[in-house]
Amino acid sequence: MIQTEKIINAWLSKKSPRSVGINEISEFDITVATSIGNVRNENQDRAIVVRFTPAENSNGSFLFAAVCDGLGGMTDGGKCAEIALSSIIPHLISNKVGLLSRSSSAIKHANSKIFEKYHGNGGTTLTAIFIDSSGASLGANVGDSRLYTISKSDVFKQISVDDNIAEQIKEIKGESASIDNSYLRGSQLTQFIGIGEDLETRIIPVTDSSSDLSLLLTSDGIHTLDQKLMSEIVTNAPSSIETVKRLLHVSLWAGGKDNASAIYIPPVPLSKWKKDNPDNLDMLEIWDGYGKTEVLLPAVNESNISKKRSWSKGYKPKPKSKSKKKKKNKLSDTDTTKKSIKEIKNQLKLDDIVKDSD
Question: What pTM does this model have?
Fold first, then answer.
């Protein structure tokens, strides 16, 4: 999975234009968008939607959406956001045991990867939604990026809790507690991805994907807008794309002092997002505000290694060399299978089977 991680990281680190990026995934009505704003020189937000479809329609498919806001006051905020997402995705692919375990361990893995590199001096927020092949879904939050729900009756509600000093005081003293900003910055984060072993991810229960709830993920460049104004925008927009388009443009009209990103997810039936994949290569699709990439991954396991295995266009295993034949000790069937897996893993070059689309 190391090579997969590198491919994802390379795509996420591509230079983005200064213009607003809005990408409607018409296949399942999800829209992902981002803006550098009017003031910043760099967009350190990363907002993506991911669909993973295993080979031969086997178990393990998932839909994943996330907003990461790299911490600008620390080292390499944008890179930390890229590391977080490129670490989480391969971990979700390889760990197929239970949605809660799958998502929690992926976030812990991302936290460890960033901490190993920056030792607490670099990090990112994370707000994410995980939906598995059964339709079960849950949210997760670290930092002050947010997750909202929108009901069919137009009730707009924040269901995440900001990891900052203001919210921590409220948890201790009650909702009515006030903060004296003359000596304390209430918006200062109390935790983030990359903080180290003290991380406590907030897992957010979300009803299954067949419910009538829509979901909105935002970075703080969006939700610094007045909450009543946000509610009016979201509940009156006629579609997914109009919702995020209006939020981003209003944030720019209000000054655009920070990077702003949003993902809008309407109720998504399984029949809409699950994809048929009879091939023997896993398929990974990633969308951001500016485009999409597809990565074909070799599903290396005993069940799909055979003499009849087909390979994607432009790639095939290296032929066996015709060197001098030497007598070898007989190997058991198990040893032969293990050897075949090792050879295939060594020979696969995933960069040759990455397809980018603008």
Answer: 0.81
